[in-house]
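To: structure desk
From: M.T.
Subject: fold request, one chain
Message: Could you run this one when you get a chance? Sequence is below, nothing fancy, just the single chain.
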Amino acid sequence: MNQMYKLFLLLFLVGFCSCKEANVEATEKEAQANPSEKKSFEMYSMSEMALLMEQMYVDNERLKNKIKNGEDLGEFPIHFANIHSAIMTDPSENDAFFKEQAALFLKAQEQIYADPEKAETHYNNAIQACIRCHEVKCGGPIPRIKKLIISTK
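Reply: Done. Structure tokens follow.
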């Protein structure tokens, strides 16, 4: 029985390996026959604006916690002003509507630091400015941006 088991195991492994080799060969032949179907790996590169918005998100997340905890807010992050000059993924999106919304956003952000007594209100106004712009320009981040709102419940 022991020899029969070894023979069965040997035949199984030989059969398994030959099937696997046949599949690899078939895949290689298909790739050679259809070179146009080869998929190339392309690294995604974020635009300056996307990078800036990611940084603003992180900054506002920290700011939200400071406001909620009654901590010192520090100073207005000067890099927010780059919203006017950062290169967008699609430069045509930098239109009058975007410029108007960006100005409203910056004004609300600056008010947080200028009037810390009403920081929560100014902060939520800034986040709402983000949402209003994204409702028109690029809706994808809206659920994430809404998480920045300080709930008054």
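Reply (cont.): Residues 88 and 94 are 7 Å apart (CA to CA). Let me know if you need anything else for the meeting.
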